[in-house]
Amino acid sequence: MASYSRAAQQWATFARAWYLLDAKMQPPGKIAAATVIRLEGRHKPIYHALNDCGDHVVIINTRHIAFSGNKWEQKVYSSHSGYPGGFKQVTATQLHLKDPTAIVKLAVYRMLPKNLQRRTLMQRLHLFPEDVIPEDIEKNLLQEIPQPRAVPKRLDEYTPEEIAAFPKVWTPPKDFRRK
After folding, report:
1. DSSP code of residue 33
2. 58, 133 contact by CB (below 8 A)
3. What angle do CA 27, 28, 30 make, to 5 degrees?
């Protein structure tokens, strides 16, 4: 009887959980950093580098990622086919227009350890350009990973009460005129 309960306990310990991460208005590097921890299983107390105990991560809204500064035009992704003259370079904008999930996928792939586990870990990464998830994946989701960066609300998302309650930096005097 003891071996049966141990097997169930071990299965529960090593069971793979499914996490959801919303990439809307998030930098790809921060998304990748939060994702790699879950893919490798480093958030679990039983983690060991040789033990494959990572979880599945579902990333939605990869079409709506955000780069700071002018990285959309300045960041360059390079590849080589292996043949003479096979060197290709594309900007982040060109790559994102071609495949909205590619930038996040490359960020996660390059942040994973460079060993034989990398391909196995990438199989547990599920990327979607919008917030539409297939039903078979959606029913497996257990927990949502908090967004690494707080997303500011747009002005049209505030209610009139919130706008009126917002503290004013400066109140103009009665006789104030704009030039």
Report:
1. H
2. yes
3. 70
